[in-house]
Amino acid sequence: MDSKPDCASPEVRPPNVGGGFGGLGAGVSGLYLALYIHYGFFAFLPLWLKTTGASAEEIGVLLAIPMVLRLLTVAPFSAFVGRRGWVRNAIAYTSLASAAIVLLLLGEPDHAGRIVIVIFFSIVWDQIPVLTDAYAVMAVRSRSLDFGRLRVWGSIAVVASNAAAGWAIGVAGIKMLPLMIAVLLIAPAIVAFLLPSDRSLSTAGEVTGGRWRDLVGDRGLVLAMVAASLIMGSHGVLTSFGAIQWEAQGISTTTIGLLQALAVAAEIGAFWFGAKLLGNRDPRLLIGAGAFAAALRWTIMATSPALPVLVAGQLLNGITATGTILGIMLVIAQRVPTHLSATAQGMNAVLLGLVLAVATAGSGLLWSYGLAVAYLAMAVLALLGALCAWPRTDRKTEINTDGLSASGVES
Description:
Elements: H1 24-36, H2 39-42, H3 45-51, H4 56-83, H5 87-103, H6 111-125, H7 127-143, H8 147-172, H9 177-194, H10 198-201, H11 212-216, H12 219-233, H13 236-248, H14 253-278, H15 284-301, H16 307-315, H17 317-335, H18 341-368, H19 371-389
């Protein structure tokens, strides 16, 4: 039976009020834009490591370090700053610290130095996306905002960053990559300092008690997090071997790049319209839709489909990935009191990181048994997510948003 932490219903405030440049909605959108604008540059980090003398084995180890540390550091840190009302400030200061740490790479440190820098960078930077989602969810609750239309700017930033990174590196040279990343990492701090504090997003009626144990006791919330993690984890084979599969089918690298861009374009459309289409329905329906769409997508991929079918499959990314992400964010916005939002985001990040790590590592083993086996295993994983996500009928979903729809928009 679903239960949720006891909290008073938050007061509904007018949408898009306060917060720096053009209102809180514009501010949070700008924060997502600033956060993701360096992602395209980050993709060239393995190349930078190679040019500075790192071996293939070392690069693999360095890229694996964040996956491990994320499981250990994100949840306690997000809970700590969330309960103290420091989410906005933590975004700003961790961004600045991340930029400073990246600059150390300009000294081209040796093997031990690279490991130390990556460890400290991972501990600091991994907090930022989680805290940004936490702040956005608080904004959705307190100002009646549409989460999808805030988060979409992150996807837009990824597209712009991927388009700009190759050109910028071609002009400045790969050796300048740490400097470029550091400059872009300052952007979230600048935006964060223009946003209202956490406490201005809280409402007078909300309690300040409660701990992560209260969230664990909310069965509906935990099942939704597990479902979202399973569905996102089911993308592991495509992420690891999709390009390899398509190249083996004779698809050119240019077309592969377009297929990947198409998936991001589908994300943008889904973020923009998803919450509006959901209306006041239970957001776990979005997660369930993501699960069934993922099962269909991986079943199609198991057949080595021709290019026109691949295009349709990539468009499904708007449901499999974006629907799942949007769904879990709206579940958290509905079920979790503001002061525990960062704690919930930390829990969700740890679950997601754990499943992604296992799915990504396991994808290599599955691939060795053949393409069909690998993708059908991912389809089963997605369907397990559907079982967890489906809204239970034994108790009415408790929504304490007083006049807000599932999207956070006034209904």
